[in-house]
Write a structure and sequence with these properties.
Layout: H1 12-28, E1 40-43, E2 59-63, E3 68-74, E4 78-83, E5 88-93, E6 98-103, E7 107-112, E8 118-122, E9 127-131, E10 137-141, E11 143-144, E12 147-148, E13 155-157, E14 163-167, E15 184-188, E16 194-198, E17 204-209, E18 215-220, E19 225-231, E20 237-245, E21 256-258, E22 264-268, E23 271-275, E24 281-286, E25 291-297, E26 303-308, E27 311-316
Antiparallel strand pairs: 1-24, 2-27, 3-4, 4-5, 5-6, 7-8, 8-9, 9-10, 11-12, 13-14, 14-15, 15-16, 17-18, 18-19, 19-20, 21-22, 22-23, 23-24, 25-26, 26-27
Length: 332
């Protein structure tokens, strides 16, 4: 998630993120007479046009939200979307209809697990929860070695079918104590076991496995960088290193995805930055609103759905997104 006005943060790292985000908001939304944000496909390399079509139009699906996060495409033809300010998890349909599934404090990143269940990070509960279609939920995990998580943020399914999530202090509930003395990346097994994978990031946020399962990308909001790790035979992380830096105003590294050809997509200044597998910045999808997260959707997973501050947008691409557990057609 991106930091939001009104949150009480417990660490200098989180405070720094908040200042960066507020500064970006002012710069990007026309503060002091500057121009408003506009949609643009901004290429830094000719390879960018292998992924996007020049002249493509961004479509607004729904609006009127407080602060959207965690979009997840459901194969039945809708999105699950979190609203962190209105404290709701909803279904968003392509005709603009919005149905509330669950009212809960500060829901954040979500995924569908290997069995198709909706899994969400619940910041106020400091937990990973499974949400049924009727809005009932159960806690899957809320502690590591007897200590409460900070505020679980984003979550994905790994190549082994387990859940992987980040746990920064960005949304640590006001008045509550931080029990872990680090901000980690964890694996949650089907048996309920929780394993720490790394604690070397200052504010871990979005994460994504490469399509072959050999790499894990994790962005660090405070450091404005994307890190990449090699994945060992027992899902241990090795050889952590910087993959890319996203400097500038108007956004920070947050939501993170990959496509089937190994390209990496990450929110950043202005919108969503696109990188090739070697860490070259190919271009940026400049967004009309600050955008915290996004995901692949539609039946062929060639459309990007963006959770911007108050609205949900979509953009058709030439790429095919990688979503763990989904058997996408072979990319051309």
């Amino acid at each position: 998630m991106q930091n939001k006005t009104g949150h009480s943060f417990k660490t200098l790292a989180a405070a720094a993120c908040m200042l960066a985000w507020l500064g970006g908001q002012a710069a990007a939304q026309g503060a002091k007479g500057g121009p408003p944000r506009q949609f643009e496909l901004k290429a830094e390399s000719p390879k960018f046009w292998e992924l996007f079509t020049e002249g493509s139009q961004l479509e607004k699906i729904a609006t009127g939200f407080g602060f959207t996060e965690g979009p997840v495409w459901d194969p039945h033809g809708f999105l699950y979307v979190s609203d962190e300010e209105k404290n709701k998890l909803s279904r968003v349909y392509l005709d603009g209809r919005v149905e509330t599934v669950l009212e809960i404090g500060d829901p954040d990143g979500s995924t569908l697990d290997a069995q198709g269940h909706l899994i969400t990070t619940a910041s106020v509960l400091r937990a990973i929860i499974q949400v049924d279609p009727n809005g009932q939920y159960k806690v899957l995990a809320d502690k590591y070695q007897g200590k409460k998580f900070n505020s679980p943020n984003d979550i994905i399914v790994g190549p082994d079918g387990a859940l992987y999530f980040t746990d920064p202090t960005l949304d640590l509930p006001k008045g509550e104590k931080q029990e872990l003395d680090f901000q980690g990346v964890f694996r949650l097994g089907a048996d309920g076991s929780v394993r720490l994978l790394t604690k070397d990031l200052t504010a871990p946020n979005g994460l994504a496995f490469s399509s072959d399962g050999k790499r894990l990308y994790v962005d660090d909001t405070r450091q404005h960088e994307i890190r990449v790790y090699d994945v060992g035979p027992n899902m241990e992380l090795q050889n952590g290193r910087i993959f890319g830096k996203e400097e500038g105003r108007g956004g920070v590294p947050d939501g993170l995805r990959v496509d089937v050809k190994g390209n990496v997509y990450c929110t950043g200044p202005g919108g969503v930055w696109v990188w090739d597998a070697e860490g070259n910045h190919l271009g940026t999808v400049m967004m009309p609103e600050s955008t915290a997260n996004f995901n692949w959707g539609d039946a062929d997973y060639t459309t990007i759905y963006f959770s911007s501050r108050t609205s949900i947008y979509r953009l058709k691409t030439k790429a095919r997104g990688f979503v763990a557990g989904v058997k996408s057609p072979v990319a051309k």
